[in-house]
Amino acid sequence: MIELWELGVGEAANAIRTGGVTAEQLARTLLARIAANATLNAFVAVDGDQVCAAARAADRTRASGGTLPPLHGVPLALKDNLDTAGLPTTGGTPGLRSNRPKRDAVVVAKLVAAGALILGKCNLHELAYGITSNNAAFGPVRNPYARSRIAGGSSGGTAAAVAARLAPGGIGTDTGGSVRIPAALCGVVGFRPTTGRWSQHGIVPISHTRDTAGPMTRSVADCALLDDVVCGATDKQTVIPAKGLRVGLPRRHFWEGLDGELQTIAEAALQRFRDAGVVLVDVDLGDAATLDAAAGFPIALYETVTDLNRYLAEHDSGLDFAALAAKAASPDVRAILQNLAGAGAIAETAYRNALEKQRPALQETYRRQFQEHGIAALVLPTTPAPAPALGEDETVTINGAALPTFPTFIRNCSPGSVAGIPGLSLPAGLTASGLPVGIELDGPAGTDQQLLAIGAALEPLLPRLPSPPA
Fold this sequence. Notes:
The chain is an alpha+beta fold. It is built from 15 helices and 17 strands.
């Protein structure tokens, strides 16, 4: 018999609906798991009394009869940059420790309206500005598969919670890979929707051009379920067979300089796809990496100042961007933000050039490859290496070379993020030392449901990861 904590989002919803388990039983089981795994530091706020009260109310509703919403009684973990009226929203930074939003983020409100319970708020890289989730204010998130390793970021706490079976699913945010990178490093599924598909309202921002929330689960079906709830989709998911599916293989840049063990796992995944009849088409995204570098940071760094100032004013924080930056605890984040508040501010001309010339050129590069090659998706390693050790915030060693950690780990995810296209990271296997690695599928803008259906077709071809060690 499956343990309660192993239930996915859809399985939990079905079990509660059919009476196989009560919402309170599931909530109490997960709260006990969270307490037993406190050293992961996945959560920064959990109100057990509040969770259990909401679960009991869900059970009373079920007992009264009637149609139940799709997520009735299912506890979900939320990254702590999504506004919640019932819990603080800190963004992982000291300046927002007392931030108590008046209302839930739009995304959160839709999940709650569909019956979901807020299990707690998850740790993250401070202000979502990094990929290690080594947070100096709230402590580092640890990888459930190896607690001396990072969980990835910036949605590291959500990924760790889902991987460690502390929650059936959760919501992160992704600006340059912050859902997909921790999903890959923690062995779960992470989905970045097309930019604008999920509302940004009520989320501590980095960049309105690049930000999006996205689901993190242990199956593609559960990601699709959460996407359906948030987007109000009612159409039945398209079933796409693997045989005959045309997928682009961008060897240049995306498949270069990979950790040797990760490359072996990723190439094995490609062979599994071929064996199932997937047609892998060599494509060249040309100057995608160059355009990403030219567009991505000027857009994000310029918009961070304006967007955070707007958020701080709307939430009556009493702070502006410079004051928030001065309170930042993590050295890497503090250095970036304080620089932006002073001499390192991005000029509007540089921002406009990135937004109006370089980004459209990057989007056209993707559009042309999808169209000219008749491909439904691209396939690439989510990250170039497995999770590095905690503390390797500045440099990481891959194949004997010391490389800067942040740009190295975002390099495959960032171009698609800047272009605004959907991306889906799937667990691809474990290294010999038991570290997960991920394989990513990117699709044309607006083809989110198709991309999820492709992920559902390819997911069974990949090895199923065991639960993390106790």
